[in-house]
Design goal:
By secondary structure, the protein is mainly β. It has helices at about 60-65, 95, 175-180, and strands at about 25, 45-50, 55-60, 70-75, 80-90, 105-110, 115-120, 130-135, 140, 150, 165-170. InterPro entries: OxRdtase_Mopterin-bd_dom, OxRdtase_Mopterin-bd_sf. It holds the Pfam family Oxidored_molyb. This is DMSO/TMAO reductase YedYZ molybdopterin-dependent catalytic subunit.
């Protein structure tokens, strides 16, 4: 049975840099559905499976050998908190997709622990998304998705899957965990796309 942690409650600071309905936090609240997976780096693997079933896989050591980027981005949670100018380190999805042969339109993201989410593939490319393993110069903790999480900062943070292990490329869109429970299929914070119908 999954457990959903309660939303962050705190002083609500407003800022002109925030999407509508959001408030600023200087903390980094931990919100998860279910227990926190502990993933061994020796067995960690990330796999992109294209729409015809071909797998492209990377181990932790493979990923560490790829060019690294250090994006500084704002992040926005559907529970209405935002954190500005967060610093990460990881590999651009563009780098991984250089070796992937696909004509798919959608990505279905899978995580250790069973979490899933869906996105249009175009939202993972052209400098929009990373697999990150460091936050503010430190290794990403398990509570925040370590050893690796997806970072898609232009969408609500539930699309930035923690403990990510793979992406299945699809010709059709398949709802993920929260999307199946009434969250918006896309999740643009600037359009307040929190729930179905927003």
């Amino acid at each position: 049975m999954s457990r959903v942690t309660r939303g962050f409650q705190g002083r609500r600071e407003q800022s002109a840099d925030l999407p509508p309905g959001q408030y600023l936090t200087h903390d980094f609240p931990v919100l998860s559905a279910g227990p926190t997976p502990r993933v061994d780096l020796d067995t960690w693997q990330f796999t992109i499976t294209n729409e015809i079933g071909t797998d492209y896989s990377w181990t932790w050591h493979d990923l560490q050998r790829l060019p690294s980027e250090r994006p500084t981005v704002d992040i926005h949670c559907v529970t209405k908190w935002s954190k500005l100018r967060t610093s990460w380190e990881g590999v651009s999805l563009d780098t991984l997709f250089e070796s992937v042969d696909s004509g798919a339109d959608y990505a279905f993201v899978r995580s250790y622990g069973g979490y899933t989410t869906n996105l249009p593939l175009e939202d993972l490319l052209d400098g929009k998304a990373w697999l990150v393993h460091k936050y503010e110069g430190e290794d990403l903790t398990s509570e925040h998705g370590g050893p690796i999480r997806l970072l898609v900062p232009h969408l609500y943070l539930w699309k930035s899957a923690k403990w990510v292990r793979g992406i299945q490329l699809r010709d059709d869109d398949l709802p993920g965990f929260w999307e199946s429970l009434g969250y918006h299929e896309y999740g643009d914070p600037w359009r307040e796309q929190r729930y179905v119908g927003d």
